[in-house]
């Protein structure tokens, strides 16, 4: 009995040792991510290669934020309406759509009356010109032979000049150009539609000055006079733009007229940095009264998981701790931290997703490099 017990114990040790040897490499790899419970280990070389960066949780002034919808509009002085110079069917220039840049005298569209009632004015002008040219050549020969009078010669010449000018005018009217350089903010007709002379075709905005129009629920009526600036995001740009860095200023009056629709408008004028297209919708963060002693972090520091928000606090070199945080208002770039992190603590502000993977799997993700 004693021998069997020793043999059984020896076999058990051998099995454990075999398993330990078999999984040694995997355990060693996981040790990169976890030294002990609750601590995530990311070595400096790995953090650098994945673009993981840290920063301090700041405590200071933070403005009241009201998040609403809005749109980008051109200023009255910076836009022109391009109109049809003659009647015809609209054929927009290739690639011309809303938001496309166009140069001064750049082609907006061509107009053709071919195939519609009344015929093609250019074709008719060509017929008149050819006839006038033949008549002038005939009269000119007769005049040289003294078989036509000076008056007949001058009348034929004048008729040719009129026909030539009419042809040139019709040639120009088939091509509609923009009188200014800017961005196409609106197309007022459909491609292939028929327009009459003077009909508006498109709106071109110079884009130097634009307006941010915020549409605000009436519940924020009392905050109206306190709002002095705003940040905003556009559907085609992940960056949050700040009016304070774009020479922005509020242009709405300080006194709000009575509101009957449930909403009121708040407008700001700003310098376009070349990335903002008029006519697009915007996510607007209205900035109101300042509050003191508010702890904030960049939005990039926050990770969300099943409705909860967390950050990764750097406890010591290469050691990080996952902390749940309660969030307050956000201005589109930073967010208020109500609890979970104290001012002055060092937090991962870039590459938090990679630390999250390490926390969830126990393994530092491979093959991810920051460029």
Keywords, please?
alpha+beta; 9-stranded antiparallel β-sheet; elongated; 6 helices; 371 residues; 4-stranded antiparallel β-sheet
Mean pLDDT: 81
Sheet-strand content, in percent, reads: 35-45%
Report how far the terminal alpha carbons are from each other.
67 Å
Number of strands: 23
In angstroms, what is the radius of gyration?
Answer: 36 Å
Taking pLDDT < 50 over at least 5 consecutive residues as the criterion, the unreliable ranges are: 1-31, 367-371
Characterize the overall form.
elongated
The number of helical elements comes to: 6
In short:
The protein has 371 residues and is of the alpha+beta class. The protein is 25% helix and 38% strand.
Word description of this protein:
The chain has 371 residues and is an alpha+beta fold. The chain has 6 helices and 23 strands. The strands form 5 sheets. Strands 3, 12, 13, 14, 15, 16, 17, 21 and 22 form a 9-stranded antiparallel beta sheet that branches. A 4-stranded antiparallel beta sheet has the order 1-20-19-18, covered by helices on one side. A hairpin with a 3-residue loop joins strand 21 and strand 22 (334-339). The longest helix is centred in the middle third of the chain and has 24 residues, at 121-144. The chain is elongated. The two termini are 67 Å apart. The model is unreliable at 1-31 and 367-371 (pLDDT under 50).
């Amino acid at each position: 009995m004693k021998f069997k017990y020793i043999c059984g114990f020896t076999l058990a040790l051998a099995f454990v040792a075999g398993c330990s040897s078999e999984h040694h490499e995997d355990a060693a790899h996981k040790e990169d991510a976890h030294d002990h419970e609750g601590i995530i280990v990311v070595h400096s070389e790995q953090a650098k290669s994945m673009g993981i960066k840290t920063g301090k949780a700041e405590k200071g002034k933070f403005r009241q934020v009201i998040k609403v919808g809005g749109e980008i509009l051109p200023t009255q002085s910076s836009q022109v309406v391009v109109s049809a110079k003659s009647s015809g069917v609209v054929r927009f220039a290739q690639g011309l759509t809303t938001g496309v840049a166009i140069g001064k005298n750049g082609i907006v569209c061509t107009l053709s009356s071919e195939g519609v009632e009344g015929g093609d004015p250019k074709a008719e002008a060509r017929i008149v010109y050819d006839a006038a040219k033949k008549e002038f050549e005939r009269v000119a020969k007769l005049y040289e032979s003294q078989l036509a009078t000076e008056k007949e010669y001058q009348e034929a010449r004048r008729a040719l000049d009129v026909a030539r000018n009419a042809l040139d005018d019709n040639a120009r009217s088939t091509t509609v150009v923009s009188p200014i350089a800017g961005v196409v903010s609106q197309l007022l007709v459909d491609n292939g539609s028929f327009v009459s002379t003077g009909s508006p075709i498109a709106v071109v905005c110079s884009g130097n000055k634009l307006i941010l129009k915020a549409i605000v629920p009436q519940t924020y009526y009392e905050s109206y006079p306190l709002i002095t600036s705003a940040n905003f995001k556009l559907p085609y740009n992940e960056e949050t733009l700040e009016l304070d860095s774009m020479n922005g200023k509020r242009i709405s009056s300080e006194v709000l007229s009575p509101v009957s629709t449930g909403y009121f408008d708040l407008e700001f004028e700003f310098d376009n940095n070349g990335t903002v297209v008029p006519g697009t919708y915007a996510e607007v963060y209205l900035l109101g009264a300042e509050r003191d002693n508010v702890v904030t972090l960049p939005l990039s520091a926050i990770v969300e998981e099943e409705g909860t928000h967390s950050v990764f606090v750097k406890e010591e070199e290469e050691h990080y701790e996952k902390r749940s945080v309660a969030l307050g208002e956000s201005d589109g770039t930073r967010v208020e931290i109500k609890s979970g992190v104290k001012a002055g603590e060092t937090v991962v502000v870039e590459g938090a997703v990679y630390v999250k993977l390490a926390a969830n799997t126990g393994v530092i993700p491979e093959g991810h490099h920051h460029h």
